[in-house]
Amino acid sequence: MTSRGFALALFLPAFFALILTTTAPLVYLAWTSARRIELAMPWLSGFAGLGNYVKMGGDPRFWHSLSLTAIYTATTVVLQVALGLSLALLVLRIPRGQAVLRVAAILPIVLAPVVVGLSLFLLYGRQGWFGGWLEDNDVQVLFALPGMVLATVFVSLPFVCREVVPTLREIGEVLSVTESRVSQLHTKAILRLKARLSAARQHVSQD
Fold it and tell me: Is the pTM value of this prediction over 0.90?
């Protein structure tokens, strides 16, 4: 078997499995969304075209759900980037005890989702640490948008930190500075980094 045939033998099963598990359900959902389904009177079911979408666009519940999704997505992304970068810089700023900080940073990865949910209940439930204050001020965290944001950020923050720390460490190696000084980089250092990366790219292209 040639190398091309061996590569196809490895690629095609994974490709067809991906089609069956991801693309096919999406196509089926798109087709189903264009049909009228009457569970009580199945003989009235049939092709509806864009009628379902027009009806959905006139429903205020759809726009409310869409606005919540947009707020949730924007808030979680901003918090993940800000907190993940801050945590990565904190890890690099402390020369001693980095192992402990790294373990604490990736701890949410090994925690089961039920543990995360239980911790939120212990903190923000009615009998939790902040539950009484939240209830007195009519602030709802659990089963609401703030709880979703907190749970998502808590679970995904270690992934951001794990990606940022090696990148900052590599920047320190390129600029010939220690890890603790990476967080102190200023504009001139960034320009020097871009110049070195451009020179390295040109050197690689010439080779």
Answer: no
